[in-house]
């Protein structure tokens, strides 16, 4: 009979791999798993209690907030405040970063950036959604208040990143820069259990994920790319399958396991791109790279972008290595593939 390894056991076991480990990162990851279970509970009963639908407010990016966006944001913030490892957070749902100014939190060595609920437009229709998070070591002095510089770090500085997917089952997938591991929530015992050890993404696959409704609004090369994906060529497995859930985290997860590419390019109506560098693109880029894949904005490696603003957006090409390269090579208005 195979041994059950809970997330908690796994985190503590992995802590031994880091010579400098003090256990703070382990506690922080545990806080995240607890907040995930709280959000999971709320997502699961969303149709039964009054938490579906819009909240009647817009966030700083002008997007309508759903009630569950705010419930998830609050749950994670509460977990980080209660723990003692985090001195501040930034999330998609808050105008500015939030500093925890009590004496214990000010000693915290980490900041967390997160998208509390990704795929909000799918909440009301019972389609997969998720939470995405990214953890950095602060650059300001412990004991002082967190500063903007703590949050505006390149993705290469992430110490951990992950996501929770509320799908047909609930999964938590994360990396600390030492491979990618996935855990499935067993609701009968309330524990995340190791189900996908050492995830490796196939170098190529047969799935392309792009909102084809936008094709007339983006680099014309992408039309050629989609044409390539659709063309009959059994030797390369084409035509590929088009799959687009509209929840980045769910599209990403499927492509990570099966092999595929997800593209959200810059478009006429989203000239900087639609997805957010700090809350969505960097954490998933870290996971993609750790699993052997790639993540770029069409020009350069996502994790090397020097962020200027908290809510900065960018184009996004992520997934299986060969497929990301192929999609980028089709771009006409870019000098693709500079640094990768
Ligand atoms: P969020 O719900 O956090 O605002 O993110 C939504 C994102 C992403 O999850 C998804 O892939 C993309 O927006 C869908 O956008 P389109 O509907 O424009 O395709
Ligand atoms: Mn999102
Ligand atoms: Mn969101």
TrEMBL record:
Residues 202-329 form the Fructose-1-6-bisphosphatase class 1 C-terminal domain. Substrate binds at residues 118-121, 211, 244. It is found in: Cytoplasm. One of its GO terms (cellular component) is cytosol. The keyword Transmembrane does not apply. Pathway: Carbohydrate biosynthesis; Calvin cycle. One of its GO terms (biological process) is sucrose biosynthetic process. CDD domains: FBPase (cd00354). Its EC number is 3.1.3.11. Mg(2+) 1 binds at residues 92, 115, 117. It catalyses: beta-D-fructose 1,6-bisphosphate + H2O = beta-D-fructose 6-phosphate + phosphate. Residues 5-197 form the Fructose-1-6-bisphosphatase class I N-terminal domain. Mg(2+) 2 binds at residues 115, 118, 280. InterPro entries: FBPase_C_dom (IPR044015), FBPase_class-1 (IPR000146), FBPase_N (IPR033391), FBPtase (IPR028343), Fructose_bisphosphatase_AS (IPR020548). Keywords: Carbohydrate metabolism, Cytoplasm, Hydrolase, Magnesium, Metal-binding. GO terms for molecular function: fructose 1,6-bisphosphate 1-phosphatase activity; magnesium ion binding. SUPFAM superfamilies: Carbohydrate phosphatase (SSF56655). Belongs to the FBPase class 1 family. Homotetramer. This is Fructose-1,6-bisphosphatase class 1. The lineage of its organism: Bacteria, Pseudomonadati, Bacteroidota, Flavobacteriia, Flavobacteriales. The gene is fbp.
């Amino acid at each position: 009979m195979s041994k059950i390894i809970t997330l908690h056991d796994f985190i503590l076991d992995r802590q031994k791999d880091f010579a400098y480990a003090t256990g703070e990162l382990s506690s922080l990851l545990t806080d995240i798993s607890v907040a995930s279970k709280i959000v999971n509970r709320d997502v699961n009963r969303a149709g039964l209690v009054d938490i579906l639908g819009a909240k009647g407010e817009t966030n700083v990016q002008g997007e309508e907030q759903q009630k569950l966006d705010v419930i998830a944001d609050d749950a994670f913030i509460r977990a980080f405040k209660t723990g003692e490892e985090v001195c501040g957070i930034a999330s998609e749902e808050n105008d500015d970063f939030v500093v925890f100014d009590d004496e214990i939190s000010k000693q915290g060595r980490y900041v967390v950036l997160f998208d509390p609920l990704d795929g909000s437009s799918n909440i009301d229709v019972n389609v997969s959604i998720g939470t995405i998070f990214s953890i950095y070591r602060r650059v300001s002095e412990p004991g002082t208040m967190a500063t903007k510089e703590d949050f505006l770090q390149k993705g290469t500085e992430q110490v951990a990143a992950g996501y929770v997917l509320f799908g047909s089952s609930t999964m938590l997938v994360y990396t600390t820069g030492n491979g990618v591991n996935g855990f499935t929530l067993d609701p009968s015992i309330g524990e995340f259990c190791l189900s996908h050890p050492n995830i490796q993404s196939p170098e190529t696959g047969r799935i392309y994920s792009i909102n084809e409704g936008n094709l007339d609004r983006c680099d014309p090369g992408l039309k050629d790319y989609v044409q390539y994906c659709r063309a009959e060529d059994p030797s390369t497995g084409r035509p590929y399958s088009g799959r687009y859930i509209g929840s980045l985290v769910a599209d990403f997860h499927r492509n990570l396991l099966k092999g595929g590419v997800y593209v959200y390019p810059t478009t006429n109506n989203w000239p900087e791109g639609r997805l957010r560098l700090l809350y969505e693109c960097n954490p998933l880029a870290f996971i993609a790279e750790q699993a052997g894949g790639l993540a770029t904005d069409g020009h350069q490696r996502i994790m090397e972008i020097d962020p200027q603003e908290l809510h900065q957006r960018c184009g996004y090409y992520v997934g299986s290595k060969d497929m990301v390269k192929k999609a980028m090579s089709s771009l006409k208005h870019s000098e693709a593939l500079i640094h990768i």
